[in-house]
Amino acid sequence: MIHNLSYRVFVYGTESEEKVREAIHNLLSKAHPEKEITEGYSNNQVLILHGKINKKNEIKVLLEKLQNLSPNDKKKIKKELHDRMDSRGNLFLRFDKQRAYLGDLKLVEHGDAIHLKLKIASYPAKKEEAIKVARKIFGE
User: Fold this and answer.
1) 93 Cβ partners below 8 Å, 6+ apart?
2) CATH number for position 40
3) Which residue, among 128, 1, 110, has the nearest Cα to 64 in the 3D structure?
4) DSSP characters over 11-46
5) Residue 136's closest CA among 123, 119, 120, 125?
6) What's this model's pTM, rounded to 2 decimal places?
7) First CA to last CA across the chain, in angstroms?
């Protein structure tokens, strides 16, 4: 259902890198994020933790977590699939960092989140076919 997934999280100066890493591991238990250092708007240091997961057994764990999202979050994703997916079949989701740290997955719209890009496996690899597969993931 999913070929691979990419993730990216910003760690701001007021946040603990270790706690953000733990939030990532609560969502993606086998993740080994790479660290990139960049500069924020106010010339402050911002860390970017990012990576990619290709292994099917690791993706399966995430699929189980997605299927256990709250009914409201699943409904919201299904309703917004057309807007959350690009023409290549990549589905974009954001999850609250603080809630992930606590072991809870909560879909959010703001940028201060764990950003996921899921490459949906579909044939042919078109947006409409990928949307059909994504609907199955979220319970339709």
Assistant:
1) 77, 84, 107, 115, 116, 118
2) 3.30.1440.10
3) 1
4) E-TTS-HHHHHHHHHHHSTT---EEEEEE-TTS-EE
5) 120
6) 0.93
7) 14
Tell me how far CA of residue 84 lies from CA of 32, 87, 135, in angstroms: 25, 10, 12
- Both tokens assigned to 14: 């007021």
Task: Report CA 93 to chain centroid distance, whole Å.
Answer: 5
Q: What is the pLDDT of residues 89-126, one digit of tens each?
A: 999 999 999 999 999 999 999 988 999 999 999 988 88
Distance CA 131, CA 115 (A): 19
* pLDDT (tens digit per residue) in 11-70: 988 899 999 999 999 999 999 999 999 987 788 889 999 999 999 999 999 999 998 999
Instruction: With cut-offs at 50, 70 and 90, classify the pLDDT of residue 140.
Output: low
Number of structural domains in the chain: 1
Residue 127: strand, helix, or coil: helix
Taken as a whole, the chain contains a residue count of: 140
Please give the pLDDT value at position 17: 96
Q: Tokens 């949307």 appear where?
A: 131
**Which amino acid, residue 84?**
R
**Domain range enclosing 21:** 2-137
